[in-house]
Structures are given as C-alpha cells and as structure tokens.
Amino acid sequence: MRGERGRGRGGRFGVRGGGPVPGFRPFVPHIPFDLYVCEIAFPRLKPAPDETAFSEALLKRNQDLGPTSVEQEIEEMRQVGSYKKGTMTTGHNVADLAVILKILPSVETVTALGTKVVETLRTQDPSEVLSMLPNETGFEISSADATVKILIATVPHNMRKLEPDVHIDMKLLQNSLAAVRHARWFEENASHSTVKVLVRLLKDLRIRFPGFEPLTPWMLDLLGHSAVMNNPSRQPLALNVAFRRSLQMLSSGLFLPGSAGIADPCENGHYRVFTVMNLEQQDMVCLTAQTLVRLLSHGGYMKILGLDGDASHLVVETSTWDGVTVKPSEKAYEKMPEVELEVDDDDDDDAEMESMDAKEVMDTKE
C-alpha cells in the first residue's frame, strides 16, 4: 500500500513486513532539556541580574547588520531590456533595471530611492560625476559614459491601492513588470547568437527609417526570434536569410489587421503584439518593409544597412538600381478627417415651426 512505503527491508522504523523485529528496540525521539519549558520545577534562588547593557549591545549589533529602510522596501531587482538581452546598439549605452518595490511607489519615495542610490555610488567612487533625473517611470542615473534607467514596479497586490495623483501610473508599473517577463522569456527562448544579432540590426533599421518607428523593442525581439527559429526544422536560419525573411514577413502584412501576427508569449490569451499600433502606423510599417524588400532584391543592402550613406529617402523617393526603377509603396490607409456637423439656422427655424404646428394639432384634439 502507498501508506506503507519505506517499511519493507527494515524501513525507517526497523520493521519488516509491518511487524516488529525480534530483539529490536524502536527509536523514540527525545526532547532536549529546556529550562524555560520546565521553569516551575527550578525556582530561582537569586534575583535576575541586570542585563540592560547586554540588551543594548544586541540592539546595536542588529542595527549594524540589518538592511537600511530603502533596502527593505525593495522586493526584487532585475536586469531588463537590451542590456540584459545582449542586443544593445552603439550610441545607446543605456542599461535598464526593473526595481520591484514592496511599498506603494509614490513620486517622493522613488525620488528618495534615486537620491540614496547616487549617494551610495558617490561614496564608493567620489571622483565619479553622477546625476539623477526622475521621470514618469522611475529615474535615470547618468555618468559621462553611460546611463542606468531604473524602471519602478510594485508587487501585484499593491496595484488596486494606487492613487492617481500620488503614485506612479498603473500602466507604467505594469509595463515595468512586463519588462521583467520579457527579459526572462528572451533569456530562456531567444538566447541564440543569430537572434541577438538580428534584433540589433532590426533596432538599427528602426532608428534610420522613420516608417519603422512604431515598432517597439518587444516586437523586434519576437520578430527576430520568429525569423530565425520559426521554421519546420526548428534549426536557426543563417543571418542573411533571417534578415531578409524578417522584412518579407513585415511586407506581407504580418502586422496588419486580420493577420495572426505574433502572439505575446508573456501574456494570457492570444494577445497579438502589433495591436498597440494604430492603423496608420501598421500601414507605415508594412509599406516601408515592402520598399526595403525591393531594394534588397536589387542589391541595395549597403544602403539599407547604413554602410553607404543615408538611405531614409529611398522609402519615399524613386530610385534606380542597375537600370531597374524601384518605386516606394504608397499608403493604403488614409485617416479620415474629423467632420463637425453644422446645424443650419434655417433648419432650426423649420424645426421650431414643426414643433409649434404639432402643438396646435394637439390643442385642437383636446
């Protein structure tokens, strides 16, 4: 029987087949002597000594060893963003850290935390010139060479206690928690070197081609992973193949309405990551990718990669490549202007007359 596991072959308690072993004395655990359990049996003959100094010494040592008030407020701290994922780009030397607080994240508390961190860093290296700048998501600490961006979050059960005028906006706190989930997923699923290189290249495209600006870093992470790993063999594709594929995926409408897109692996349900973009932005991403695919097909990779001067104009101007004319894609979505309904004064007069006529009819019936 399941409840008898461990009793065969002597078992834990020296039994065999459920019965006692002849000549075996079963082990009975004992309770160590504790004066405070049986103090009534040992009455004190002398008064208790004065141990005030000893108590004060214990409190002092506890203060020395205990964490500061700031440290106690911190539940967890994690590296996130491009710094953690290994996809940072030159000229953007910013490391992102998500700090999850146990307490409610008020603006004053976050500013005090930033000030305390800077003071600690200055103590470690007085020659370092540091600055701290609070922002809507937390704060940034900068030196001459780099910047650390602190994203503030809080434990989930604090979310329902937030006050809009006192604490950091709930949406921003949720974004910081999402950044932690994104970093963890990327580390577990997209750590292949080809994925990291491709994501870095896609981020560079986003900087140099305005049509890609609506793409978030998380979209680029998932796009890079999908372009490299999402294939029948489940083996990573070569970088050149994956780069072209990523542009082809966008140009074919991967991030357009009606597309399955890419489901967010860090959210519940089938949440498509591109839905944070509006229709105009989705169209702009698609037409930019379509133009770049045509340029790539005619040998324009040096321009696309920024190795041969600026190429941002090529997505809005016609260009020629070895006698082949490449025309940029045009918008498929036009935002409709808001139309204000104007009421004609004559219409008002007519409506008033009709109302008066109706009243006269009712009076006649009465």
Automatic annotation (TrEMBL):
Its main location: nucleus. Residues 356-366 have a biased composition (Basic and acidic residues). It is found in: Nucleus. Pfam families: DZF_C, DZF_N. Residues 339-355 have a biased composition (Acidic residues). Residues 1-347 form the DZF domain. Keywords: Activator, DNA-binding, Nucleus, Transcription, Transcription regulation. One of its GO terms (cellular component) is catalytic step 2 spliceosome. InterPro entries: DZF_dom, DZF_dom_C, DZF_dom_N, ILF2, NT_sf. Residues 332-366 are annotated as: Disordered. GO terms for biological process: positive regulation of DNA-templated transcription. One of its GO terms (molecular function) is DNA binding. This is Interleukin enhancer binding factor 2.
